[in-house]
Amino acid sequence: MNDFVKIVEVGARDGLQNEKSVIHFEQRLELLNRLVQSGFKSIEVGSCVSPRWVPQMDKSTDLYAALEKPEQVNFSLLVPNIKGLEAALQVGCKEIAVFTAASESFAHKNINCSIDESFARFEPIFALAKQHNIKVRGYVSCVVDCPYEGAIDPQKVAMTAKRLFDLGCYEISLGETIGTATPIRVRQMLQACLDVIPVECIAGHFHDTYGMAIANIAESLNQGIRIFDSSIAGLGGCPYAKGATGNVATEDVVYLLEQSGFQTGI
Ligand code: HMG
Ligand code: MG
Predict the structure, then answer these.
(1) Helix or strand or coil: residue 125?
(2) pLDDT digit string (tens) for 48-65?
(3) What is the largest CA-CA distance in the chain?
(4) Hey, is 117 helix, strand or coil?
(5) CA of 257 to the centre of ligand 1 (A)
(6) Nearest C-alpha to atom 13 of ligand 1 is from which residue?
(7) CA 125 to CA 225: how far, in whole Å?
(8) Antiparallel, parallel or unpaired: β 145-146 and 150-151
């Protein structure tokens, strides 16, 4: 059994993007510095999106620049378009994450375009990223349910994830955006994805609206998944998924993993 599990800490991005009050720059920086000190090796710093759409993530590139960045830690920025990548490059960012959805309605609400249009935006991103040797991670949202369309066909999730993989994403994070999934449905969705993408390139990204995230992670571990996104103190949600509460809390994930014989390095 592979007993190391990689945790991608997304609290400073997926967590704080959903806070009602603006979190001051210095507080965001302090949070990130403490995450580094806690031993996280993969940290999402923020996002280079439109500040009109998500004002909470404004100045994420300044944050990236201000952060002390030990060699052994991977810091990333979420990027929706070429403008976002150009901003990330300005501050020397070495890893970005692009995002799309398995639901058309969610794609429109979240990024104001169709799924196909989101892939058209990714093409220049990948071309520029390749030139600069930037690693690209990919997110698929709504992998089980969509707040606007209901249940999503696992084949549609697998197809969208495979498109990201074929474009060059080194890792695909499967976003259970609204936290309604249960283990059986997670298993069905993962099995469809595992038919087309190697297990070591798949990450689970669970939200905890119905308290099911830990059960869903346990099921994902049974399916061989060894990468999970989580958010410190369960901060988070998604501004375009009304009613969805936080991401799974990192401390709960670490507890589950360590009590189950896995190592996390945290
Ligand atoms: P748009 O309005 O269709 O595009 O937004 P636009 O090109 O017309 O741009 C509108 C304005 O934004 C313009 O400014 C642009 O310059 C500016 P104006 O001229 O009006 O002053 N702009 C930007 N500014 C900064 N950085 C940029 C950028 N791009 C344009 N990169 C857009 C399209 C994609 C930009 C917009 O819809 C957007 O920013 N969406 C982001 C939504 C978001 O961040 N959602 C949360 C993250 S996804 C998530 O949480 C799910 C995940 O956690 C997984 C899961 O749980 O499912 C990943
Ligand atoms: Mg999320």
Answers:
(1) helix
(2) 999 999 999 999 999 999
(3) 46
(4) helix
(5) 35
(6) 50
(7) 27
(8) antiparallel
